[in-house]
Prior knowledge:
Layout: H1 3-8, E1 36-39, E2 44-49, E3 56-60, E4 65-70, E5 75-81, E6 86-91, E7 97-102, E8 108-113, E9 118-124, E10 129-134, E11 141-145, E12 150-155, E13 160-166, E14 171-176, E15 183-187, E16 192-197, E17 202-208, E18 213-218, E19 225-229, E20 234-239, E21 247-253, E22 258-263, E23 270-274, E24 279-284, E25 289-295, E26 300-305, E27 312-316, E28 321-325, E29 332-333, E30 337-340, E31 344-348, E32 357-365, E33 371-379, E34 382-386, E35 396-405, E36 408-409, E37 413-418
Amino acid sequence: MTVRQQRYRTVWTTIGILLGIVTLGATPAQTATGADSIDVGLYPLGVAFSPDGTKAYVTNNSDGTLSVINPATSTVTATTTVGFNPSGVAVSPDGSKVYVVNYNSPFSVSVINSATGTVTSTIAVGDYPVAVAFSPDGTKAYVTNSGDNTVSVINPATEAVTATLGTGNNPGGIAISPDGSKVYIANQGSASVTVISPNFDTVTGTIPVGRYPSGVAFAPDGTKAYVVNMSDDTVSVINPSGGAVGTVTETISVGGQPQWVAFSPDGSRAYVTNSSDDTVSVVNPAAGVNTGTIPVGDEPLGVAFSPVGLLAYVANADDASVSVITNQTSVTPLPPSARAKSKVVKASWTAITGTNKYQVSAYGKTRSGKKFSKTATTIGSQVKVKVKAGIASGSKVKVCLTAIGPGGPSTAACTMATRGG
């Protein structure tokens, strides 16, 4: 891991740490994974789609630009120069404006006309801004300022800051509930989420979460919010209706140094970027379980779903690319739990969705000492593999699980089971 990687991973937050040590001579590279990729600018961070899904926007932190991508062709169609070290990006609900947060001085938000791709104005905000989110009705935009522990409230109609509210230490990720009633802000330095009421633009409470929370997102139906805890390698699941402002109901383990999170439009899955693993964890929100991973590029940070289908983009900071994940992309499942009995190997796991097809293979020795290899295929989350000759008592059985998606089989995930006496 490079010095830059170590330092940056402590923050979508303290992005200032990476300033001056970013390798400006880096060469864009293709992602050597199952997911396709698109070359963009240097050190891409934030990702956002237009409301109709016809455009995607990626902030390039090291060269001060915004890449505009046509998802239909997976090509960069335009590059817009913005401020210094852009980080977060969001598109207004009507699709007319794109807000880009410029992390370094002068601290600002670049306002871009989406039709022309030009910067029409710049809005001054707090110190070292990180992320931005629009209210569902488009009447407000909120910008987290990690340097002075505040959030700037902007009126997009006048492009003026109408309020500045205090948060916890080092605010980073921000999300607004689908009904517009709550704003959640992840405070990395406080291990908490600040809750704001947009009706009055007042802080209504704080929710304790894991260490160094970074990304935050609401489920499309508003019944859950996910907060990524970078130092714990977990996701805190919040019930927004619990208590006065929301309560943590469970914690889900994900990959190494997770950074950002996004829900699919249908709420069937959530993607979490794992910056030290170079993977995306695929979480089943209904089950509250991490079901597997997708390998992506080097140091994945930002992630966003298109409003159309299951297309998702992942910004890979260290190889200047965006990984393209579709419903054709194979998901490597987590190893199943398995038990071996006299003539049956039983395997169980959590499916990505209820309609995913899986193959389970069992390898071991029969009672006569011969090797066996048996396979069963199922739709669901458990299966029994029958061994007619019987399994030798005390022998170990290797059990491998493979997800079979539209794009073909995934890499197998294996575990060992011992047949009892």
